[in-house]
Amino acid sequence: MNDSRSIVILTGAGISAESGLATFRGPGGLWEGHRVEDVCTPEALAADPDLVHRFYDLRRGALAGVHPNAAHQALARLDEAWKGDLLIVTQNVDDLHERAGARRLVHMHGELTSAFCAACGNRVRWPDPLPPGSACVACHQPALRPDIVFFGEMPYGMEKIEEALSGCDLFVSIGTSGAVYPAAGFVQLARSYGADTLELNLEPSAGSHLFGESRFGPATSLVPAWVDELLK
Ligand code: BV8
Q: Which of 103, 36, 95 is nearest to 63 (CA)?
């Protein structure tokens, strides 16, 4: 594949698993026994703000103790070296892609290290615990919430993502179960535009049958090998 061609890469919790961050739907994937679908909703936030804020405080607090792994580092190396268009679309809310050096990156489900004001829409970097009712730095309302896209909310960057998908020659999905939309539908969109499609995952996912090629194994071995292939 010559390096003027355009690549879109979708990542999910599986790319951060070997850094020590639990996935959602795998063994041990429940957060304190909660299914992410039950905690990650506007209704849960309204009904039990302490639970939802604590769920995200726990995960934000875990970031200091984990580091990017060889898969994150390989994607950052590709981002640096690739002369064609390239976009990493992550469903993950951890900061491991950027800590590995990735630049052409979109967090479509939000970020743990950001807070969002439900009153005025202001976004602010927030690396610390975020108690319910924290005051917004812009409008001073006690309306800061985790800057996370909950179920039923519109993912971030969809225009940019759809534009990248419409022009890509290769769509690669790494470490995602294909359980959550619209991310799980990107492979069909890419195929409809004539892109080649590749899945790198620990085991077959809900969408494996939609990919031109699937490779199964841990991301820290599959992703560096794939990037080496691409850059040689
Ligand atoms: C929306 C927040 C519309 C952050 C998350 C169409 C059909 C059906 C349902 C819907 C649909 N369209 C919309 C929906 C509803 C819903 C949805 O998809 N529901 C599902 C459950 C059926 N979607 C939404 O609500 C989305 N919003 O569509 O809005 C709209 C339109 C107009 C106006 C307003 C709204 C919003 C979805 C975002 C929800 N937020 N999380 C957080 O808390 O982290 S979702 C959550 O699941 C995470 O973001 C996570 O990223 C995502 C997907 O999970 P994965 O990343 O895939 O992780 P998982 O554990 O599932 O799988 C890990 C994989 O890794 C496995 O395959 C495993 O084998 C592999 N693996 C493990 N170890 C390794 C590995 N691979 C490699 N190496 C390893 N070592």
A: 95
Find out whether the beta carbon of 29 lies less than 6 Å from any atom of ligand 1. yes
In sequence order, the 6+-apart residues with CB closer than 8 A to the CB of 73 are: 100, 101, 224
Q: Is the CB of 201 under 6 A from ligand 1?
A: yes
Whose CA is closest to 89, among 203, 10, 188, 199? 10
Distant-in-sequence, close-in-space partners of 102: CB < 8 Å, separation ≥ 6: 72, 75, 76, 79, 88
Q: For tokens 């875990």, what's the residue?
A: 62
Q: Render pLDDT for 61-97 as a digit per residue (tens, 0 to 9).
A: 999 999 999 999 999 999 999 999 999 999 999 999 9
Q: With a 6 A CB cut-off, is 24 part of the ligand 1 pocket?
A: yes
Nearest CA to ligand 1 atom 72: 14
- Its pTM stands at 0.96
Q: pLDDT digit string (tens) for 22-31?
A: 888 777 666 6
Exposed (0-12), middle (13-18) or buried (19+): which is 37, by Cβ within 10 Å? Answer: middle
